[in-house]
């Protein structure tokens, strides 16, 4: 978890997203070089897919805005239907009191929502 203002947070997020896209394209290009690397890509596909899914923002929907009186989930600007659905599910779980903490004005953990 990182706590920072919106400008710095967005700059860090965009940098990480750009790096991920760069490496993803590079890996795909490496697997497409020739028949042997394509075969290797086929064999590695399920593992790579599982790894990519762990970092897919559509799986999670968004991030909680800590410190708000009620659950607030910030979704990605290019969210599709799947990620919006995930964000709504995440907000419903937070509203039901499934472990999200609020933070009071002193910055210390507060009570559950």
TrEMBL record:
Q: Name one GO cellular component term.
A: cytoplasm
Root EC class = transferase
Reactions accelerated catalytically: a fatty acyl-[ACP] + phosphate = an acyl phosphate + holo-[ACP]
Question: Can you name one GO molecular function term for this protein?
Answer: phosphate:acyl-[acyl carrier protein] acyltransferase activity
> What GO terms describe the biological role, i.e. biological process, of this protein?
fatty acid biosynthetic process; phospholipid biosynthetic process
For this protein, what is the EC number?
Answer: 2.3.1.274
Query: What is the protein's name according to its record?
Result: phosphate acyltransferase
Q: Which organism is it from?
A: bioreactor metagenome
